[in-house]
Each structure stands twice: as structure tokens, then as C-alpha cells.
Amino acid sequence: MDRGFEIDWRVNCVVEENAVILVFEKLEKMYQGARSSLLEPVQNNPVDTLVATMISQATNDTLSSRAFLQLKTEFPDWEYLLGADTEIIEGALSCAGLYRQKAKQIKAALSKIKEDFGAITLDPLYDWPKERCFEYLTSLPGVGPKTAACVLAFGLGKPAFPVDTHVLRVVKRLGLVGETEAASSAQSMLEGVVPEDIKMKLHLMLIEHGRRVCTARKPKCNVCILKDMCQSCNSHVLEANNG
Ligand code: SF4
């Protein structure tokens, strides 16, 4: 993908589509095969995607996948979960962080879905516009904007740009969003700017970049493919961290 333009990053501090595309093109050279080990196995299954993403809050992908598989083994049909004691759900989720809270929220979300659709299914959302899906999903207990966007993108195959902790860190450092921006407002800002056809791929590549290069504590700015355009590269804070 070569759209053949350059921009002056130092004067373009607001989110611009051109800036986003430039980041995408550079990351694409490094992370062509970026994927989600947690969500790829449940892709195109919106309910499983919802549950897996709820489990992943504050938990890494390895433990989230393990907890999700344990939950599926315990409850091969989500209907069984609705009738189960909370302690049994907690037991299945115990390798994930905040598992007590997640057990309650997952049960409550699935229960609400059943109440709304007569079964534990999100299939009706395939026919809804994206905005209505987002509104519905964020009305479910324990479901925030990032989880809703993951269900849209991975579960329902609708273009969406989830902003998790890695994505937020990288876009802030790049200067795509302000330093004090919350994940939810960064997501709604970027949702309107990132072209539909690159949303999921850019999300996956930014996560990969955040894990491998633009790490929380010691970003490897010297080897970063985005360093020429990054507002934080060589900043005092990062220099100190790199030292
Ligand atoms: S230059 Fe440094 S701070 Fe900027 S994106 Fe790369 S690793 Fe992150």
C-alpha cells in the first residue's frame, strides 16, 4: 500500500488520516502477519469474542486463552453458565486477573443477551448498523468501548478500531492523540479517522509494536521504524527510561 505522500509530523498534532496511513504503511513492513492469539480462534463468533475479550481485561493473552478454554470446557453451551453457581464460573476463570468480577459480569452480560434475544446469541447484530451494535454492546454489564469494538471487528466482521493499553500508549507517544487522552475518547477519535479497510490490521500491528518495540518502560526508540515521525522519540522522559 503506497499512497505516496509525506507529512510534517511536528506541526500536525491533531489526528489526521494521512498521518494514520503513514504509520500503517511503515508498520506493515514489519508486522504483516500480526494476529490475535486470543481472538483469532473465536473470530466470527460474536458471543465467544465477547466472553474472550471480557476475560482479557488486565490479563495477558496466554492466561486469557487458558481461562477462556477452561470456561468453555466447563460450559460447552453458554446456557449452562446461566444456571451455574458463581463459584464454579470463578473457578474456571481463576487463572485470569479480576476473575471474581469477570465471572459476575460475564454471567450478567449473557443473561441480558438472552433476555433481549430469547437465546444467547448476537447474530441479530449482523444486520444492524455498526453504531447501533456499539450502543447495544456497551449497554451490557461489564462491556466498555474497547470490548464492544473487539466484538464488532473480530466477532461481527464490521470495521472497528479497538484501543487497548498498547494501542493507547503508542498513539499517544506518536502524538496522534493527546498525552492525557483516555482510551475511550482516543478510540472514538481514531474510529472516525482510521480508514475502514485498515482498522483491524492497524489495531493488531500497533499492539505488536507496543509489545515488541514501544514497550511501556523502555521503548526501543533507536530501532523503531516510526522514530522519524514520533513526537516522543528522544524526549527527556524516554531518554531517561532508555538510560
Ligand atoms: S520512537 Fe520510541 S516512543 Fe516513538 S513509537 Fe517508536 S519506540 Fe515508541
Describe this structure in words.
- This protein is mostly helical and 243 residues long.
- The protein has two domains: 95 residues, Helix-hairpin-Helix base-excision DNA repair enzymes (C-terminal) (Endonuclease Iii, domain 2); 116 residues, Endonuclease III, domain 1.
- 53% of the residues lie in helices and 0% in strands.
- The chain has twelve helices and no strands.
- Helix 2 packs antiparallel against helix 6 and helix 5 crosses helix 6.
- The longest helix is centred in the middle third of the chain and has 19 residues.
- It is globular, with a radius of gyration of 19 Å.
- The two termini are 36 Å apart.
- The N terminus is likely disordered.
- The chain binds iron/sulfur cluster.
- Iron/sulfur cluster binds next to helix 9.
Please, how many domains?
Answer: 2
Report on the biggest sheet: none
Instruction: Name the average pLDDT.
Output: 91
> Helicity range of the residues?
40-55%
Name the CATH superfamily assignment of the largest domain. Hypothetical protein, domain 2
Give the SSE string: HHHHHHHHHHHH
Shape: globular
Uncertain stretches? 1-13
- The count of β-strands is 0
Number of helices: 12
What name is given to the CATH topology of the largest domain? Endonuclease III, domain 1
Q: Compute the CA-based radius of gyration.
A: 19 Å
What class, by secondary structure content? mainly alpha
Portion of residues in beta strands equals: under 5%
Q: What's the CATH class label of the largest domain?
A: Mainly Alpha
> What distance separates the N and C termini?
36 Å
Architecture of the largest domain, according to CATH? Answer: Orthogonal Bundle
Ligand inventory reads:
iron/sulfur cluster
